[in-house]
Amino acid sequence: MTKTYDIAFLGHYTKDTIVSAEGTRVVDGGACTYGAHAAVRMGLKVAAITRLAREDFHVVDELRTLGVDVFATATPRSTCLRLEYPTSNVDERVLYITSSAEPFTVSEVMDISSRAFVIGASVRGEVPADVIEELRKKNTLIAIDLQGFIRVVEKGRFAFQIWPEQSRILAAVDVVKGDAVEAELLTGQKDLRTSARLIAGFGPKEVVLTHREGLVVYDGNHFYEAAFHPEMLVGRSGRGDTCIASYMARRLEAPPSVATVWAAALTSLKMEAEGPFRRDIREVEDLIREKYPTTGRTED
């Protein structure tokens, strides 16, 4: 029996060991985790399709308590990452992977219907092309995060490479999310607007690019920008995952201008604490009134 949702998130749970000047701690992560927390608090009907070890099923239990339908495949090991922040610049980090929950299969998505699917993989191969092509058969919006396709593992450490299926995948999706580093690697351009136009040329209808100060969105015709306004910066990890999740969740009913501001505000509050967004959604509305008094596109 096919189940239907507003938004579905596909990606591994990740057990993140974060190392910074503040010390070392272990945090529950993964785009699926960050995304589902944000979307369910926005009042949407949410599914999370993930893979993880039994010992980490407390994450599944928490999401189900919030009202998320979790389709979890138990694996011998969870995907475990180590994120090292060597300086005070939160965009300077070194990432390692110590174990993987193995790739998704077509069977894990066949019986799930959703208005939108957000694919948030940690590394290339986690979500194979045939899974995306199965989703493309559905009447749905598909968003992907570039990191899950240009990241590879070299000696246990993440590295970036252009991927052979780039044209095939980008032509099959509706929204692409990336950060400044990933966008430059893909296009060879440092300017985010130039990169966004080039990425859109592969086929996606919208491009969402995050950077240290906020996000830039391109819908094929116009640009939209909004800054992040966290009162304190504690939870850098999961910034992009939360941003694309909240953008897509709001985009289901609102134009890009509104979704851009919403994503910036919600992500700002998420960055004030480690782990997923766990705030009252009214705080997002309050922050928008305070910090984002006007919306609309920027000069193109």
How does this model look, in words?
The protein is of the alpha/beta class and 300 residues long. The protein is 31% helix and 29% strand. It contains ten helices and 15 strands. The strands form three sheets. The chain has a nine-stranded mixed sheet with strand order 5-4-1-8-9-12-13-14-15, sandwiched between helices. Helix 1 packs across helix 8 and helix 6 packs across helix 7.
Keywords:
10 helices, alpha/beta, 300 residues, 9-stranded mixed beta sheet, single chain, 29% strand, 4-stranded mixed beta sheet
Brief synopsis:
The protein has a 9-stranded mixed sheet, with helices on both faces.
- Main sheet: strand order: 5-4-1-8-9-12-13-14-15
Rg over C-alpha atoms, rounded to the nearest angstrom: 18 Å
Number of distinct helices: 10
Low-pLDDT runs: none
Reported for the largest beta sheet, the result is:
9 strands, mixed
Q: Secondary-structure element sequence? A: EEEHEHEEEEHEHEEHEHHEEEHHH
The residue-averaged pLDDT reads 93
Which structural class matches the secondary elements? alpha/beta
Distance between the termini: 46 Å
Strand content: 25-35%
Principal-axes shape call: globular
Helical content band? 25-40%
> Count of DSSP E strands?
15
